[in-house]
Write a structure and sequence with these properties.
mainly alpha, three-stranded parallel sheet, about 75% helix
Length: about 425
């Protein structure tokens, strides 16, 4: 029991270690030389850590932006945070063991489904599995389950999501990447499908379809075709204008002028994107070849389902457009939800960037520029509606003004509150 608990808390929850060990297993199954195994394993670990470092830089910059955004426009309400729910569930509510064993159970169910069904997707985004485990355990408690049954049902539901979400996203991922080598392992997929559906209805088609990535610029502005310069031209002024509204109290940092501080935070955002994309390239260069061993031996034709940033290099313009349009949608949703008697959900800039950016890629590949714009706004409304609905369900279990972010985990929790709980009470 102690060994299992150590493995869950110190290895399986460390996404970089998990992916590196899986790469090692794949290389060993291919009977690669020792040197190749060590090189492939280390580069996989290094690639994921570089990706994580880029994400951390972006998170720091967006955390600052979220703070000044709220104070600039005097916003009050619930800020969705799956991390806060996880911390409260594991510490204050004493659900740590159930969450840990559900996490392990989800991974096992995922492997079994991939091995014995036509859906050959292995979900490798460790933190996303942890969030799914958290929400299924909390959902189980809301539904009235206890102990073993909470873990068993959570493992089954989470394992099904871990296979089903990459499967439904794969036709779009195939169009985005141009091949079938990887899948998307990110529990915001329901939101991506909402954007794709909206883009299909309202977007461009056929000869009228123009990709965001193919924007034609005049000679004097061709420098904006550089990914990082185009991001800087959009994001840096956005930071500085928001800081001007927030004022020096909230946007400043020590003796540094608050506008200059906002400028540097905007540059940090661009740096984070640069580092993140470098990590993605390094990771994909190692994990895809290494995964062939698992695909050949353990789970024939298996595909690695990886975190959403792996798609960013394929459509960087769509990522920024998705972030902006999703943010617009969440701002509209913030004012719209109280009209229907729901909680005020404040825009979460981290979700808006990572989920909104990925959704923007889906919208663009389905409906071009118009599809990405309209789809992004609807996506923002959708990811505001789901947390607002979840607030009511979580209140029953003692969470005050708390909600989650990732759409798939919210759908799983609402399944417990709206379907599983009433069924259990009826019987």
């Amino acid at each position: 029991m102690v060994v299992i608990d150590f493995i869950i808390k110190n290895i399986l929850t460390q996404a970089a270690i998990t992916i590196a060990l899986i790469a090692m297993l794949g290389l060993l199954l291919q009977r690669k030389p020792v040197g190749s195994v060590l090189t492939g394993t280390f580069k996989t670990l290094l690639g994921f850590q570089v990706l994580s470092a880029g994400s951390a830089i972006i998170v720091g910059s967006l955390t600052y932006f979220g703070k000044i955004f709220q104070h600039a426009f005097h916003l009050n309400g619930v800020v969705p945070s799956i991390e806060a729910i996880n911390g409260q569930a594991m510490n204050a509510l004493g659900l740590g063991n159930e969450i840990a064993f559900t996490f392990l159970g989800i991974f096992i169910v995922n492997i079994l489904i991939a091995r014995f069904s036509p859906f050959k997707y292995i979900f490798l985004t460790g933190q996303a599995l942890l969030w799914m485990a958290t929400m299924t355990v909390v959902g189980g408690k809301v539904a009235g389950l206890n102990g073993l049954w909470t873990v068993v049902l959570g493992s089954i539901i989470g394992g099904i999501f871990a296979v089903a979400m990459p499967a439904v996203a794969q036709p779009f991922v195939r169009k985005i990447t141009g091949n079938d080598a990887i899948a998307l392992g990110h529990f915001c997929t329901v939101g991506y499908l909402v954007e794709a559906g909206t883009a299909y209805i309202f977007g461009e088609r056929g000869e009228n379809k123009h990709s965001v990535e193919d924007l034609k610029l005049p000679k004097s502005m061709e420098f904006l075709q550089d990914t990082y310069l185009s991001i800087a031209v959009i994001m840096v002024p956005l930071y500085m204008i928001t800081a001007a509204f927030a004022g020096p109290k909230w946007a400043g940092a020590g003796a540094t002028n608050y506008i200059m501080n906002a400028f540097m935070q905007g540059i940090q955002f661009v740096v984070g994107v640069y580092v993140l994309l470098a990590g993605v390239r390094l990771l994909l260069g190692e994990i895809v070849p290494a995964f062939r061993g698992i695909a050949m031996k353990l789970v024939p034709n298996a595909k690695p389902a990886l975190d959403c940033p792996v798609l960013f290099p394929y459509a960087p313009n769509s990522v920024i457009l998705g972030f902006i349009t999703t943010t617009v949608g969440t701002v509209i949703g913030m004012f719209l939800m109280p009209v229907f008697g729901l909680a005020v959900i404040l825009p979460g800039m981290l979700t808006n960037f990572f989920a909104g950016g990925t959704a923007g890629i889906f919208g663009n590949v389905v409906g071009g520029r118009r599809g990405a714009i309209v789809g992004g706004i609807i996506h923002g409304l959708f990811i505001t509606l789901l947390p607002a609905l979840l607030v009511t369900a979580l209140t029953r279990f003692g969470f005050v003004n708390a909600s989650a972010t990732d759409s798939d985990t919210i759908v799983a929790a609402l399944m417990y509150a709206w379907i599983i709980g009433p069924i259990l009470k009826a019987v």
